[in-house]
Amino acid sequence: MNPGMDCKEAEEAVHGYVDGELDRAAAARVDAHIRGCAQCRRLYERERQMSASLRQAAERFTAPADLGQRIGAALEMAAKPASREHAVSWRQLGLAASFLLVAVISSALTFRFSVPGETDRQGEEVISGHVRALVANHMTDVASSDQHTVKPWFNGKLDLSPPVVDLAREEFPLVGGRLDYVDGHPVAALVYRHRQHPITLYVWVDGSAGDGAARHLSRRGYNALGWTLKGTVFWAVSDINAEDLQRFAELLKSQA
After folding, report:
1. What is the C-alpha separation between 74 and 72, in angstroms, rounded?
2. DSSP bridge pairs for 226
3. For residue 182, how many C-alpha atoms fall within 13 Å in the half-sphere facing its CB?
4. Which residues pair with residue 217 across a beta bridge?
5. 193 — phi, psi (to 5°)?
6. Alpha-carbon distance 11 to 18, whole Å?
7. pTM exceeds cut of 0.85
């Protein structure tokens, strides 16, 4: 258990952590705690799955295009001095307030419950995992450039033996590996480096997935490139440019 945060603090902060509302320092403290506390990690997984279910089940509402103009006109009318000809009735004020309430609710629902596609969802999740590891300064559980040390480390921890290749000659040296979570399931996270930039290669088995075309996502200065090969899903995440990340992926595929 991480002494920097106790379970009570973690329970109070985990909702904001799931919704991405914490600053980096707070998120790092929660991340460090749930990595070392099985009870709070289970709570995190429940909250994360509930949040994902709500996003998938909720409908999306979009405000009418002229709603903003109508609210502005109603508020302008309400702000005018009262006179016999232009007195604002309680009915008009109520109508303006109703428009404003609808706008607020519509905006909130659109922001919170917009349903991302599968590519976006997976890409955002692996990017978040990569960033969490960076912020917590916990990129590896096993730190080694030897593929024969990193690969056996996953034995018994996962339902697959991830392919671990040596790309040091191609300027992508292996740094190590760690256990991470995607969609609530443990996955292999192999860590490489290109110059001073770390790359996390996520690997997990999805028997329902066939070979698929590459999928690319860019968020917050990070690139994620995903592909599927023989029922195994790969996602590479880094802040290196998209061309170098593509070259990294092609090197992996050529040795698979």
Report:
1. 5
2. 215, 235
3. 28
4. 224
5. -140, 140
6. 11
7. no
